[in-house]
Design brief:
Layout lengths: L4 H16 L5 H36 L4 E2 H8 L5 H14 L9 E2 L8 H9 L13
Parallel strand pairs: 1-2
């Protein structure tokens, strides 16, 4: 399978970065690495958010909870699952829809993670004094 456009762009950026790093000081290198990470993150979000939404809507239709590891496996990695679910929830909230990731739960407790509850409060969907049970 040929590389996707974001993959090609990222590979090109890495090569350019490696060439430049020999002439830069460490502060500039650090800034450049951060810039590249943000580009990759944006590309991943635009790929993963629709995939996550499709998977979670299908699970919700069958009244099924989805463990974090399951959705991470669907999306191909754990390192960014919180970022993907946060962005998905923000988009759903902006459309007036419920936060679909409420069905994504920790295997041990069968509850959403702390990140979900922080987002609920950030979006002002619950008061700061609300307990998890009330949310």
């Amino acid at each position: 399978m040929p590389p996707t456009q974001p993959t090609r762009r990222f590979a090109r950026d890495v090569v350019v970065f490696c060439i430049k790093m020999y002439t830069m000081d460490s502060t500039v290198i650090e800034r450049e690495v951060q810039r590249m990470a943000n580009i990759l993150s944006a590309d991943l979000l635009e790929t993963c958010v629709p995939q996550a939404r499709k998977y979670l809507v299908a699970a919700a239709r069958t009244h099924r909870l989805v463990p974090y590891m399951e959705i991470a496996n669907v999306l191909g990695g754990r390192g960014y699952i919180g970022q993907v679910l946060d962005e998905l929830n923000r988009r759903e909230h902006a459309r007036g829809h419920p936060l679909i990731s409420a069905i994504v739960v920790l295997a041990e407790s069968h509850e959403p993670s702390d990140g979900f509850f922080k987002l609920v409060q950030e979006l002002r969907l619950a008061s700061s004094g609300s307990s998890r049970r009330q949310i």
